[in-house]
Give the backbone structure.
Amino acid sequence: MIDLAPHVAEALGAGRPVVALESTVLTHGLPRPANLELALRLERVVAEGDALPATVGVVDGRLRVGLDAGELERLATEAVDKASPWNLGAIVARAGCAGTTVATTLHAAAAAGIEVFATGGIGGVHREAYDESADLAALARYPVITVSAGPKSVLDAAATLERLETLGVPVVGWRSDHLAGFHVGETDLSLPARADTLDELAAAFRAHRTLGLPGGMLVSQPVNDGIDPATLRTWVEAAHADARARGVRGKGVTPALLAALAERSGGETVAINLRLLEANARLAAAVAGALAGAPAPGTTSASTSPSPKEAL
Ligand code: PSU
Ligand code: MN
């Protein structure tokens, strides 16, 4: 029931770099029409980085890897569901349409054999008990590198990092020692690893896999010129108050909080969200290129032949 677009299958078969992209950010994360523009721009950014973009989504009951422009437009403009692993089967069974969350996109990417995936901010542990995104369990389950700007800023970043440790998900800071804070550049939370080159990132992932450890790796890339943390905090408080007042529950929580943040910030959080998504797509394309050319662990050619994308 997973439809792999023929051009994606061909690229994977030839060992060319492919980057998976999610679609809940398109269907539930961003306002229209910025959402469709963003989806198309992310695909362009990945292509400019010499990798093939494969956006994942559910269209008429098919989990599709490599949506075409018409399908992207449908997801961006129609009222569709939000597919997490817990409701994906039901949506497919009733031939519905949905954006796929990080968790569901990881499942599809792994099934297709795609090793690199770009998103904005991952879901994680919410500030209000008890709500934890299925993204965390999925990061621990699927052997895929997820390039992100850290957990979304409406979440409890410290608790999210603790859960990632418990679940055994390696978190690597891209040219950074601290967990990225989505709308803010860096949090004060120390990471277990950092990478300054694509070869270091690729080597860390290959070692994780070669050791037989399950699951994937989270790359944390701080956004440039993020929002001042104190300012953001007041918006986040207000967003939670809005969501509480409206009695939002379950899978509606994250979209409601992001929408409230956008409103409270006069659109500033949306502008940053677009910028970090683009930066993550760019880095993911470069990572996919490095992985495609990466030597097996234990060989030394990584240090003697640096990737051409090292100028990133
Ligand atoms: N990144 C963004 N915006 C988003 C999301 C990620 O910049 O809207 C989506 C992702 O699809 C992620 C989901 O999986 O939000 C998390 O939802 P929840 O907290 O309900 O698991
Ligand atoms: Mn939830």
Remarks:
- Residues 115-312 form a domain with the Indigoidine synthase fold fold (CATH 3.40.1790.10).
